[in-house]
Amino acid sequence: MSALSSYRCYVRTVLSRRQPRSYWLPSTENSVPTNLHSPLTYSANRPAIRWILEISTNPDIIESAAAILPSVQWPRKHDASATFARLHDHFVACQDKELYIKFGKAMAHLCIQSVKIKEHFLKFHWNDEFQGMRSRFIRDAFMAGRAAYDKLKNSEREEDEMKHRADTRTALRTLVVHGVDEQFSRPDDEHLIWNGDLRWRHSDDREPSYEEFDWLVDYLADDAEHDMDDETEGDAGHVKDNETEGDALLALSAMRGLGSSTKQQSYIKSLIHCMGPTRPPRVRHTALRAVFEAREELASLTSASASKGVDAQLLNELSQALSTAVHPNDHKTIHDTALDHYLHLLYVLTKNNEWYQRLTRNGHLDRCIPLVDAVSHERFSEVGFYLLVIFGRMKSSGKDVPFSPYQGQMADAHHKRVGQRAISQRRRRLRRWNTSLRDSDEAEFGQPRITVFRRSGSQNSLQRCIKR
């Protein structure tokens, strides 16, 4: 008992170190959160906070622990499933908006740590009263990142610069955690690259303007400079920047465009750099996702309509970079989902004649022909459609296209679907016929007939045996 009492005193001491109102506490847009945690703050208090969240039943103490948790560094590979599960239970049962946000941000912090969390704990259903909270979580992290980056640009001391850069990284890592509805995601989850949706709105339901993303374009351009410096100097100190580049690209994909006119050139240059063959797969693929989300605006660009600094040469470089985004070298296979987005992108861009000529010169359209073999029957109706339209545009431009392998696959898939549909319709007709027959038998003989369906050999024909 004395040991427990002593531990409780320690817990009270820990909880007395209350954090100031910052990103981790609910805030209004007029009071932008600026005090992101330092990853090393209060790491000695982790055992006490863990004990509170896993054992305590006092709601006030649990609330205080949840407020402190985002300032705690957790050891790598630590199993935080029990702590996360308790937070999850409080989160889904919570009826207070401010407390709901507090628990949500504590859970998001655990997700960006290198800890183990059982996957089923990451899923949840939104409280009916808080349906718009996902946008709120994304917006708060976005604003926190912007505030940290503003401080980074104005830093004069190296230690301040390091702190604010770390805070910006933390905000972007936290932002992508909320990329999928009704679940928390781990930031490096590949599902986020292709299926994450990081769009957000202001508290008055306004969509953010392109100009509000300018800071993120600048941050990505700064990161690209660090990467080039590392390549020349051999410095391996920017491993974290690879992670953050992917996070920043996912956040920028929410623009669904190329950004403000003053930043388009810088943004496209950063996209080209991030799709380079030496970049990590996550960076290349998140850059491809960002280009994919800007596909309609790209397709509308012509030499006459392009913004200042976005000329034909820059768009040619972007076209060349798209190749390495999905196929960095001849020895690596194309990721299926990357292939889907790539073909959809080509389908949209080839509507523009300038882009059609550009993609042809860079070998994209010729590369589509062998890609047919990579398109499975299950995805044929969607991706095969894009290929069909692309080939049609190639043929109408006078280019000779060897269609035979494509037509064979199309015919096989078509006959397979038609055959399955015919069998299903036949089964339904037989069931309806048998039901009416059984009803008439019951009326006439007082007992139903027994109908047996057999599958004959390798054929899908149905044999009906009726026994009196």
Structure explained in plain terms:
- The protein has 468 residues and is an all-alpha fold.
- The protein has helices at 2-16, 46-55, 59-68, 81-93, 97-112, 133-153, 158-176, 190-195, 214-233, 239-253, 264-274, 281-293, 295-300, 312-326, 336-349, 353-361, 364-371, 380-396, 404-445, and strands at residues 450-455, 462-467.
- It has a two-stranded antiparallel ribbon.
- A hairpin with a 6-residue loop joins strand 1 (450-455) and strand 2.
- Helix 9 packs across helix 11.
Notable features of this structure?
two-stranded antiparallel ribbon; mainly alpha; disordered N terminus; 2 strands; 60% helix
Bin the strand percentage.
Answer: under 5%
Distance between the termini: 80 Å
Q: List how many beta strands DSSP finds.
A: 2
**Unreliably modeled segments:** 1-42, 231-237, 404-415, 440-468
Described by its quaternary structure, the protein is single chain
Helix content: 55-70%
**Number of helical segments?**
19
- Which structural class do the helices and strands define? mainly alpha
Mean pLDDT: 77
H-E string: HHHHHHHHHHHHHHHHHHHEE
Write down the overall geometry. globular
The main pleated sheet reads as:
2 strands, antiparallel
Strand order of the largest sheet: 1-2
In angstroms, what is the radius of gyration? 29 Å
What's the gist of this structure?
This protein is mainly alpha-helical.
